[in-house]
Structures are given as C-alpha cells and as structure tokens.
Amino acid sequence: MKNHFLHICDYSKDELWNNLNLARELKTKFHNREDYKPFKDQSLAMIFAKPSARTRISFETGFAWMGGHALYLGPQDIGIGKREAVKDIARVVSGYNDMIMARLFEHKHMLELAEYSTSPVINGLTDYNHPCQIMADMLTIWEHRGNLDELKITYMGDGNNIVHSWLQLASVFPMHFVFCGPSGYEPDKKTVSMVQDSGVSTFELSHDPASAVDGADVVYTDVWASMGQKEEAEEREKIFSDFQVNEALMEKTGKDSIFLHCLPAERGREVTDGVMEADYSVVFDEAENRMHAQNAIMVTLNKFS
Fold it and tell me: Left (φ > 0), alpha (ψ -120 to 50) or beta: where does 231 sit?
C-alpha cells in the first residue's frame, strides 16, 4: 500500500533510493536551519501502545520543524484493540489528523489501522517489524561507506523485528545478510523465505559469532530481551552471552567495519561499553538519522494524502 509505510518490501529499490536521497536533502536543510514547511497547518497523530524516547522525539521534532503539529497519544489515551476496535480508532483519528504514526505490539493491528484510515499510516514499530529504523540504518551506512554496494550485514542476537525488516529489505536490495544467534531464536521462517525466493540477496544462518562477522561491513545488535520480554531477561542473558558484540569480535571482521545498534543499549550485555564508544561505532549518527529518514517518509506520503 503505497499511501502507507508499513513494510520495507512494499517499495521498489528505486523508491527506497528516492527516499534515501530525500532524507539526505532534508538532513542538509535541517542542519542549515532552512525554512521548510510542507506540513504547515497539518497534524500528525502519534499512537503509542509501546513507549519510546527516540520515536517520539524524532517524529515530534521532525514534524514540528516541517511546520506541523504532532499530537502524542499514549496507552492511557487510546487502548488500541482493547478499549476500542482498531478500525474505529482508525476512522476517528484519521478524521482529525492528516497523518498517523503508530508504535504497536501486534502487527495485525497496524494492518487494520492502515486499512481503515483515510490518512497515511506510518509503522513506527510492531512486534514483527521496524521499517523506519532500517531506513535510518541504510542512510547511516551510505553516509559512512559512501555506497551501499555488496554489503555484508551481520546481525548478532535475537531474531526480532529489526531482523525481519532487514530481511524484507534484502528481498529488494542486494546484500549478504547473516543472522547469528542461539538455536531456537531464529527469525520468522516465512520472512527468511522472502529473501531466498526473491533471488536478490543471500541469507546465512549462523550460530558461530567469529565466522559470522568475518568480512562484515556492518555488525549490528539489539537488546536480548525486547519490550514485553523483560521477565525473560535473566534467562536470555545466559542463553545469549556468547553472542555479545565486544572489541575482540569486532577485530574478527578483518576490515574497516562499522557498528550499529538501534538503541537503547544495555551496555555490558549485548554490547560492551568499549564497542559503543569506539570510532567504528556510528550508533548516535544512526539515532539522529531516524528523524531525517522519517521526515523523508512523511514528505513522500504527503503526496498520496
């Protein structure tokens, strides 16, 4: 659905490149403090079933810079799928607002929200995927490598929503994607099949961190216990301990690799403090780029609204 931004794979390679180029232009405008107001007198409804500092700050700041007003709606304001039917919320909120960003637990709620909304819907995260983050990741890699050719991306840890969006990207954008984690925590099999069926990229499943990072252009990790899994944190720490990204592992890439983390990071668990603070760590550029990538998504969707 091109009038929404729900999955990376809903867009072609050329469309994703257009978005990245626009994000770069908007980043320059933002840093130059240019007057740029495509959303003058417009409003963005931000629905948060899951709280997030970066998502709220980046969307609210970006939309305000572009001339609009962003409205925060937390779990206490909208009990999506609980207090009120998703399709009812979609029609009510889109009747008031020009655009909706939602950060939800269940992916089916995101799909229903988009189906019944008369305004563009942006997926700010679900338990299944996180497409805005991956656009920010691509922008960051492009800035630091100068190109996006022949990438080897190694993800260490849990087969979570970040991994699913990277796999969806790999079904459109050529790369070699390696997932490395403990047995039993692999990504969704159907999403892995998307990559294999596309013939665009190669996918490798690994349980050996040293071989998985060999030759990697990017080493990526995330928390071992995501929101909603914190009761499993102690058990997961034992299971995932061999998959920590530390200085010794980064040396095993054998090349000038960069390190990414979507944040927040639990330093000393999935990543060491030393890696977070190393010259090859670009996690704070990556965090800033969330806003610029999302601004580009919103500007693009505004053409369809």
Answer: alpha
